[in-house]
């Protein structure tokens, strides 16, 4: 089937179908590994224990094996449905903000992310306002270098076109670019990065995810990148971007308006850099001081 698709010309070379299928195959095998899912569930329960607004089911070891996973039952309804039936406007904003914080914390603080953004994996209990997380069959660990560079990239994207050089620098270090790309490819890459970073832009706060149309606006640039890119993304990128896109889409379905920049700056300023001496690589001139440096009132 793969050869048929390739020979048909339906899939452009820049999609790197071999890599897509390789990642999909690994993820399918991971989803069927119930011992791995049990370990990931236990790990998330420990990681989120300090945050009572989140709940993770306990694994029942005596009823679990390599072929069966048993956990406690979690109350609540899928969060997008609950937003329409049980949440006030303020509650939708709170829930959306916590989901965005969770995605950033999983990547940048825990370095361990649940990468399946299925909305039914996030349950809302209206009596308590608690968010329950289920289904940890697809989880990804990230090495410190990747996490540090990706955070720097996101921070640059949040500042928009003036940070073109920083965006290209960190994209190259992360393997998105080889250094031999055409201007057309580089322009599309930067445009797409800036669009993805737009919820964190200073002048867009709080950001109305319910009204965002990033997926539509980015389509042309994505098509250009698929046509012109010279290298496939790192393996981690496929599932990471699926989760981050899912987070944006879920916030949109919830109808949340979120102080996204404030959440990002909190994560950035509290980040434990693997290489502290390099933590300020490619500084962002013209941006406001970090939260650690600025008066608290500026972020009130």
Concise structural overview:
With 300 residues, the chain is an alpha+beta fold. It contains 11 helices and 8 strands.
Description:
The chain is of the alpha+beta class. It has a domain at 79-116 and 142-279. It is built from 11 helices and 8 strands. It has helices at residues 2-8, 17-31, 34-47, 79-86, 89-110, 144-159, 164-173, 183-197, 214-228, 235-254, 260-269, and strands at 54-55, 77-78, 112-114, 122-125, 130-133, 139-141, 207-208, 257-258. It has a 4-stranded mixed sheet. A two-stranded antiparallel sheet has the order 3-6. A hairpin with a 4-residue loop joins strand 4 (122-125) and strand 5 (130-133). The protein starts with a helix and ends in a 31-residue tail after the last helix.
Key words describing this protein structure:
alpha+beta, four-stranded mixed sheet, two-stranded antiparallel sheet, disordered N terminus, disordered C terminus
Number of strands: 8
Number of helices: 11
The portion of residues assigned to helices is 40-55%
Largest sheet: 4 strands, mixed
Biggest sheet: strand arrangement: 1-5-4-2
Indicate the proportion of strand residues.
5-15%
Mean pLDDT: 87
Order of helices and strands: HHHEEHHEEEEHHHEHHEH
Low-confidence stretches: 1-11, 288-300
Compute the CA-based radius of gyration: 20 Å
The structure class reads: alpha+beta
In whole angstroms, the N-to-C terminal distance is: 56 Å
Shape: globular
Layout of secondary structure:
Elements: H1 2-8, H2 17-31, H3 34-47, E1 54-55, E2 77-78, H4 79-86, H5 89-110, E3 112-114, E4 122-125, E5 130-133, E6 139-141, H6 144-159, H7 164-173, H8 183-197, E7 207-208, H9 214-228, H10 235-254, E8 257-258, H11 260-269
Parallel strand pairs: 1-5
Antiparallel strand pairs: 2-4, 3-6, 4-5, 7-8
Helix pairs in contact: 5-10, 5-11, 6-7, 6-8, 6-11, 8-9
